[in-house]
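worker-03 picked up job from queue 'complexes'. Input manifest follows; four sequence lines, order preserved.
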Amino acid sequence: MDHPETRAGQIFSVVMSVLIIINVIFVLIGTLQNQPQALSVTSSVVEIVSVVAFTIEYLLRFWTADLRYPGSRPSVARLRYVRSGMAIIDLLSILPFYLPAVIPVDLRVLRILRLIRLIRVFKLGRYSAGLATVGRVLKRSAPMLVSSMSVVALLMIVASVLEYYVENPAQPEKFDSAFAALWWAVSAITTVGYGDVFPVTVLGKLCGSVIALLGVGLVAIPTGIISAGFVEEANRGAEAPQPAIHEVASTERSAAST
Amino acid sequence: MDHPETRAGQIFSVVMSVLIIINVIFVLIGTLQNQPQALSVTSSVVEIVSVVAFTIEYLLRFWTADLRYPGSRPSVARLRYVRSGMAIIDLLSILPFYLPAVIPVDLRVLRILRLIRLIRVFKLGRYSAGLATVGRVLKRSAPMLVSSMSVVALLMIVASVLEYYVENPAQPEKFDSAFAALWWAVSAITTVGYGDVFPVTVLGKLCGSVIALLGVGLVAIPTGIISAGFVEEANRGAEAPQPAIHEVASTERSAAST
Amino acid sequence: MDHPETRAGQIFSVVMSVLIIINVIFVLIGTLQNQPQALSVTSSVVEIVSVVAFTIEYLLRFWTADLRYPGSRPSVARLRYVRSGMAIIDLLSILPFYLPAVIPVDLRVLRILRLIRLIRVFKLGRYSAGLATVGRVLKRSAPMLVSSMSVVALLMIVASVLEYYVENPAQPEKFDSAFAALWWAVSAITTVGYGDVFPVTVLGKLCGSVIALLGVGLVAIPTGIISAGFVEEANRGAEAPQPAIHEVASTERSAAST
Amino acid sequence: MDHPETRAGQIFSVVMSVLIIINVIFVLIGTLQNQPQALSVTSSVVEIVSVVAFTIEYLLRFWTADLRYPGSRPSVARLRYVRSGMAIIDLLSILPFYLPAVIPVDLRVLRILRLIRLIRVFKLGRYSAGLATVGRVLKRSAPMLVSSMSVVALLMIVASVLEYYVENPAQPEKFDSAFAALWWAVSAITTVGYGDVFPVTVLGKLCGSVIALLGVGLVAIPTGIISAGFVEEANRGAEAPQPAIHEVASTERSAAST
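worker-03 finished. Artifact:
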């Protein structure tokens, strides 16, 4: 059995989380140049251990899928599991390791395969219960967030075309197209401000100031939406004893009692 | 008939939205230098197709204005439509195409006319129902937002004059007037920080630090106002089943049933 | 009589506000070099007109102080007015003009006197009713804001001393003392990021990353406090018909009816 | 007796706070190079005075520990005090002064000991009652804050590996490993934007724009969580007359009455 509320289940969670984090750190380390022999050996060992662990995990989950979907027959349950979002992430986490053994690939493809290993990060989502509330709030606020973010995107495009026409004569090499100006607009509206591109003319600075101030306002809108979402969530939690978590718990319990 | 809640109306919305987004992207592409022949031909085709589509849309809306304002006579309704905000945006979206054909214009004016095409972006507002809530919250918070933003503006001016007097002796070419210092103040208070102008003297850095910290606080004020607006909106929505959207829906239904 | 709720009072408000804004703009313009003759003449005219207007305003307010404080005797009321915060700002706005006529001052003092003219900006506070709510919320949140800001200040000092010890060996000319590191810390925590000073060592970048992330969190705290303040204000407004504004209105009405 | 609600207790609080702040400022000043003789003498005097004061404070607190924990016997109470968080900070504040006298240390260790003096800043926490609410809100929001911050951390790692693969061919010296890209990702997501590292390729800028926009969104999440925390705190405060502060006051009173 896979995820009981027992001590074994908790140890399994922690071990898998640690393994995933070690994996991500080794993807970072793997990009270092002139690595000593010992490091690349360790890296390979970590890779093999994690692929084996993740494969066993995948097969176990596949095998016990009928406990996850109690109503359906084993074969249907397994098919339902394979098609679920987390199962696809699980599969993509281990596939890049097995693929080169089955079909020959060149070095370029191999590099992209290595990148796909990063998808293992998303496996962590399963083990973190605390993210559930954040996810729920974001999901509920999604329509308004998408709308306001699309307004920001449109504003950026308008700003970049305007700034291109204003600044192009003064610095033709930096504002060589509206796309270069778009990079500036993103940097100004998100208030990152790298300082590689900025307006130099008086009119350009005036537009740039307005954009920066609008940027502050437009950062305030998603923040406001999300804040209201969390306030609403807190109010609901005060009234009802958090049905969403309750529901998960009952599912787990039924799985454990089987 | 124009905007029924039917399937045809939905398809119309999506087609128009896609057309507008393609248009905006082609305004961006139009600023690229050394464009291949194929691209500029495509660009012209897109321009002609959209102007034709937008003209037909405008004429249809003009024609069916009496359905939009059920109480008034056709001629009055059409006049009311022409004077409405969205109709002016619709007209400005197509006018720059027809103008050069009617009266001869030089290249400089033509450039500005091209810029006006960007106004088509605002046509999207009509098709996005999700923005309604955001707009309503911003409208209700407007007086407080304007007040606090004007305080920020005044603070910026005071900061820039102070910083000009402090920094001018140390870097006379960068802080050559209070307007140059104003550009710095905008960059510091909005926390963009391009890095093209910054204080170098001890007193200037001290002032700059205070300004940056005030900037953080003053970003917090509009965010707080907007957050409170969304919380209020959510509370209202919990009590009454969102009257504003209901109202729009009933208007649309009555228009459709006519 | 000074500020009735009549049409004359409203016109007076608008005229004074415009005069103050023109004044501030001319302080900005006054810092431009190589000004044409016409501009400096206009500047002097604006200065004389505003000083005359502000002096008349001050004398009128002084004269009608007994209407403002109905209970007290005229002489006591006038003394109370002179000691009020707005009256001191009013006096400081006009004093720098009269001072050089009374006592001889050198050029250096004259420059500081010119800066004091900027205090006229704060006269605007009187004419903007919209700022009342923002001011009230900030006043109520002040203890928590000051506490959290002082934590930020202490964190900055700790961060700068740490970063000084870490980065000093690598870039001794940029991190020459903890004060230079403090300038970096302000720039990092407020997320301005000019880019004139930044860590280059691995340990320095690690500390810098932690500081930047803490900065994000610490920007969130004042925003949260202010948001809660506005939500509370909105809730109060929904229950009682805004007593603070009501109170002001009744004071004004009683002043007008006298 | 140590902290009565009497005038003597208040004076003690203020004197200790001022002493701590002077100490922190002298740690900053101590990093200045080419100090005049007078300054280093003052610095030594400040150090000796504060160590004496802090030692007396520590001993007094140790002695009166039985008043702090009324139920326990004197020896148990003193042990409980020594193990409390604030007592450890108190001890670490004075230990680095006495250590070199007892055991010989080399210059390198001495430097680290000097750094530990900065821990005195945290002694201030005891004297600031205003921080209690902020601390309480942060403590209650901690699980959600940690969850969302870990998502940001994971996003940063994914972003840096992606950006490394995209930008490495274009600027191999700046994006020499994923760790260099991680430094860029921190700078972009926190919207600091120093401008020492930034993408130059089209694909890199596209990824960078997405990261910057996600950064804005992910700054909004902790802000939203903390805002909701303060709103909840304000709602509780409105219902009950702030039990936490009441509790502290009653403890103090009982300590004073003993």
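worker-03 released lock.
Confidence is low (pLDDT under 50) at residues 241-258 of chain C.
Residues 202-239 of chain C form the longest helix (38 residues).
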